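U., I forgot to send this yesterday:
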Amino acid sequence: MVGAGWWATQCHLPALQAHPDAQIVAVCDHDAVKLKKTAEVFGIKNTYTDLDTMLASETLAGVMVATHHAAHYPVARACLDNGAHVFIEKPMTLSAADARALVELARARRREIVMGYNLNHSEHVIRARDIVRGGELGAAQFISGLFSQSIYNLLSGNLADFKAEVHSPGAVYSDPVRSGGGHGHLQITHLAALICFITGLRISRVRSLMAKHGLQVDLIAAILAEFDGGALANLGGTGNLPGGGRSCSLTVYCQRGWLALDDELGRLTIWRPEAEPQRHVRAEDSGSAYPYFAPTHNFVDLLLGRAENHCDGIIGWRATELLDAAYRSAERGGTAITRQDLYRELSP
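Result:
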């Protein structure tokens, strides 16, 4: 495990301990105080404050990267170069060029990249993917997505009342240097990954506006995207959801029908052109728990040869393309950014 902070101790290390066949060999973090506490809580013997030293000292089947966003690329690259399979917490990287470089490196090394997108493991999301990619409803034409959550404390850095079992997030998510952006990189990235996972689409052009409302990072995002093949999408949300909680929904309108996901309810609603009008719309509730540990367990099972890569580096890369284009567009007042722009230098 690289990164011994809040999300590593809140999610990934507990998930590894819950897997009967996972062994946590070592943990690495540049913060020696944080590292010591994490190792004590989880009973991890080998600790390192330097990544290169850990990679040279340990024989690792896989490495989980749960650092701040800006460190994902250099850490994952070093691990892939060392021959390990890599799990990367979302977002994959802050730039599309870096995401592409990791995918190409993994391919050259014949290693796997697994992404930490929990929602893509939900039963109703997998069902939606099978329907859309199976062609039952025809090609996707228009997509509408919303992800809002009550995370103002994270984005503002005001964590006086934040409760954590081991470590709090500190000021990481309110710091544009370490996190890149705010609600976009923290939560809208889920919508980007859902679109790629369900439809297989890749952006061709993006326009966006973002609002900070006095913060250092974005609190609200509104994104218009065009994909190869002509499908259009509007995506957005706020990190200041009144009343708390989370609201996540995605609707995909296709040539011959549509489907709508409601993550809070675990529900998939499907419209099909069937013979009986009263059967055109059907809601399917998964009834399953939120797949909190699923990405970590998929990584372990992949390393053991028991599972396919459920959410791979291509999904992480394409989600990064959408977010990279959205942030560049917002910085330029909503100017359209093409996918090609992401791989060449743009003037301010």
